[in-house]
Amino acid sequence: MSLLEGITEFVTVAETSSFTTAGKRLSISTAQVSRQINQLEARLKTKLFYRTTRKVSMTEEGGIFYQHCRQILNNLEDAERAISNRQETPQGLIRMTAPVAYGEQFVMPIVLDYMKVHPQVEVICDLTNQIVDLVHGGYDLAIRLGHLPDSSMMARQLSTRTQYVCASPGYIAIARFGVPHTLSELGQHNCLVGNTPYWRFMENNRHRLVKVSGNLQCISGYSLTQAAKQGMGVIQLPGYYVDYAVNSGALAVLLEQYSEPEEGIWALYPHNRQLSPKIRMLVDLLAEKLP
Questions:
Q1: pLDDT score recorded for residue 85
Q2: How far is Cα of residue 151 from the mean position of the Cα atoms in its chain?
Q3: This prediction's pTM
Q4: Which of 8, 32, 100, 230 has the highest local Cβ count within 10 Å?
Q5: How far, in Å, CA of 230 to CA of 251, rounded?
Q6: What is d(CA 215, CA 213) in angstroms, rounded to the nearest whole number?
């Protein structure tokens, strides 16, 4: 029996917490996945997973084994990349992740265009607002917004964004306290928020967070923009959501003197992996096309 037999199935189950999902990802039956895991556990003489009808989770021994196996598969993928770097035609699997709303509206349309031009490329894209571990998750590429924490990842800036505070002329006309001129006046207004009630500003050359509140919270920038255009309140969103409405007069920019400097939109990838043609060309296209 090969030492690598069952390793791919084990890692995939560990990362998906599901025998069924692992089978679909590997294009094999659930029964075959289960058989490989059972044989692996028998060979190791230890239990790797706790199994119930609703949940699959790793044992302590399974977690230790997973860390080593994930590194083995990463090394094998590096070996494949070393070969694929010699090829000019993008081909093979790209595992990537991006924020949900930004990924849906901006990243995925570019990815789909890329796949039409390069039909030998397969993409698994995880749209999530969680910060995932690229190495342990086996990702080739992540799209991140805003300020990057220090990490071992390599980063390439694809574009920039600026946050704007906006409201419709209709809202301003009926607002009890009129146009806000200072950050403290935001507390008097109905602020429509996304995934955080804190808005970011620059005051006296220092970054400042201001807690705001209102009667609508939604992680969709598009929906918040529509609500603001309908006069429901004040929003803070990146320019790619509000530029058209501002240019058309549907929204007015407020508190512009407190705006933070532009922040980056980034492509991240593990620094121990050279960018293969399929990744490099996708990143180049994103840098060209992202607003």
A1: 60
A2: 16
A3: 0.60
A4: 8
A5: 10
A6: 7
